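Support request from a user on the community tier.

User writes: "When I paste my structure tokens into the form, the page sometimes reloads and wipes my input. The last time it worked, I copied everything first. Here is what I submitted, just in case something in the input itself triggers the reload:"
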């Protein structure tokens, strides 16, 4: 049996929950844990790392927007000026 690394406060998900793989690159594990806790509570999801991806078992898959909110830099607070765009 493979060892599982869980994010802090990760909990056991139902064995029938589908697994969603999300690339490790550019994902903030703290943001991901917080997002999963807000969406599903402490007892209905599990996250482990396998082959450079977070493997998430939860009641449903995260949307692309929800995953983007967990990125290290989501760009939501940064806007380029016209001068910066021209360079």
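"...and here is what came back when it finally went through:"
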């Amino acid at each position: 049996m493979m060892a599982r690394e869980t994010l802090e406060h990760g909990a056991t998900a139902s064995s029938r929950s589908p697994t969603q793989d999300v690339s490790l690159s550019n994902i903030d594990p703290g943001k991901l844990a917080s997002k999963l806790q807000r969406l599903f509570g402490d007892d209905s999801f599990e996250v482990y790392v396998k082959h450079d991806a977070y493997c998430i078992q939860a009641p449903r898959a995260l949307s692309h927007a929800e995953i983007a909110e967990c990125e290290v830099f989501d760009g939501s607070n940064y806007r380029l000026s016209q001068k910066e765009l021209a360079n």
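Agent notes: The reload is a front-end session timeout and is unrelated to the input. DSSP finds three helices and three strands in the chain. The mean pLDDT is 79. Escalated to web team.
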